[in-house]
């Protein structure tokens, strides 16, 4: 079958990957792909990578996850676009040069920096008149009037079916430069001194080797979003782990 390309000036769905670096059960990616051509984006944020709680080993692992994600997206037709900068500036440049119709992302449970970043992006999207849809990715429920109903909301979320990965993504035209996945030196980070044999392998396939997962002793919903498991999120039944990045 011939490759179906996105036409020039066709509205683009921009999917902003943050902590969930996979294609399987990725709500923003699935929903965006159902609406038109997708621009998958990861932003390397100087404010986050130079924060006190960020170590060189974090970037080693994230970079490995980005390479796996880029390959998984490329197999579907459109590779991951990587840019370095503060999110509002990066998004404004893309929105000013491309026909972006909607911005998609996960709600993120992070630190104060990521919280302030997300608020800034929401303000920017409102000012631009750009629809910005953030989908939940775990058990944290935003803006509850009362915590008394949290458990019901959590149970409902954990019972939802998984999002199927899009089988294909139409390549954008003209093609965008995917951009390099920068090195530690290029980002001004110290070298990663962690011995390679002690590094955690990226991607959900590696999570199968965790003893509790292999025994099936973790209930659905026990895993929370984190780079530490390559973006593995709850709920994630064991049969899905083998294809979670591809």
Task: Write up this protein.
- It is a single chain.
- It is built from ten helices and five strands; from the N terminus they run βαβααβαβαβααααα.
- With 246 residues, the protein is an alpha/beta fold.
- It has a domain of 135 residues: HUPs (Rossmann fold), CATH 3.40.50.
- A five-stranded parallel β-sheet has the order 3-2-1-4-5, with helices on both faces.
- The C terminus is likely disordered.
Q: Which short descriptors sum up this protein?
A:
35% helix; globular; 10 helices; 5 strands; disordered C terminus; alpha/beta; Rossmann fold; 246 residues
Compile the SSE list and pairings.
Blueprint: E1 12-17, H1 27-33, E2 38-44, H2 46-49, H3 56-76, E3 81-84, H4 87-97, E4 100-106, H5 112-128, E5 132-135, H6 150-158, H7 184-187, H8 204-207, H9 211-215, H10 238-241
Parallel strand pairs: 1-2, 1-4, 2-3, 4-5
